[in-house]
Description:
Layout: H1 5-15, H2 17-28, E1 33-34, E2 40-41, H3 45-56, H4 63-77, H5 83-97, H6 99-102, H7 107-133, H8 139-165
Antiparallel strand pairs: 1-2
Amino acid sequence: MSGSxxxxxxxxxxxxxxxxxxxxxxxxGQLPFSLPGDSAVTPYFVLMAVFYWGLHRPDLLPAxxxxxxxxxxxxxxxxPFGVNAFVLIAVYWFVASQQRHIGxxxxxxxxxxxxxxxxxxACLRWLLVSxxxxxxxxxxxxxxxxxxxxxxxxxxxxxxxxxxxxxPRGGGGDFMD
Length: 177
């Protein structure tokens, strides 16, 4: 029954898992976490997903999807159009191009690489938003968002690894097989 419509649908659903997770995380990213003093900051969930899937299964997450998800996030957050798209594409390109060098490393190494990439992404995003809006964004809110993102990365990775185990083999390096 490998050629049945149900198996084709199942394969298509499995192959779209990274895209659906990205879309879910864009929505989840709209839920604020409160800081002392009534500020609302949210971890950069989509960055975590782009890093993970760009490293492990870029074949299932095309760059155009990353770009569109970035634009969607810009629209939902009210940030200048293209900021998240640019940052996410830059991260995706870097991770996918370095897959051979950083893929298959122990989790702690990957977490440190993510923390480094996340720091560059946070600074780039802060610089772009501050420049394009001609308003200095408070650095401590960016720092808190960055720290929350790095701290929550291992939690989301567990979900990504479980999701990846349901996907057909192929593409990028496998992690935790």
